[in-house]
Amino acid sequence: MGLLILFIFLVIVFCALGIFGIIMTIDLCEYLKRYHSGKWKEISFARPFGMSQESFPIHPVNPVSLISFLASSEELDDNNIQVYKKRLKMILYAFVGVSIILIVLVIFS
Q: Which residues are registered as beta bridge partners of 61?
């Protein structure tokens, strides 16, 4: 019974981390779009599916460019970007850690 409760708790934490990571990524994208348009153009697709970025319903972010931006030590003159990067890295590390624990728990239970 205790293992089931632990599993349910870890699944809830896993989902919460995923949702929080998505929200933080959207917030970072909106911040970059508003205050650092040059960097925004570097990490986003120019014309996704032939549509302009303004008429696209979601943020057209290139995942590879976004991950390399988060992993880089490039310094922008804005302290908020560094805070976003730190928070998203912590969320990613926690997400991967909980994923590993869940996989081990499922395999060895």
A: 44
Please state the rounded mean pLDDT for residues 61-65: 84
Contact 28, 66 (CB under 8 A): no
pLDDT of residue 72: 87
Name the pTM for this structure: 0.81
Alpha carbons 76 and 43: distance in angstroms, whole number: 14
SS3 category, 44: strand
d(Cα 42, Cα 44) in Å, to the nearest integer? 6
**3-state secondary structure (DSSP) of residue 45:** coil
SS (H, E, C) 53-107: CCCCCCCCECHHHHHHHHHCCCCCCCHHHHHHHHHHHHHHHHHHHHHHHHHHHHH
Give per-residue pLDDT as tens, 3-58: 899 999 999 999 999 999 999 999 998 898 889 888 888 888 766 566 555 655 56
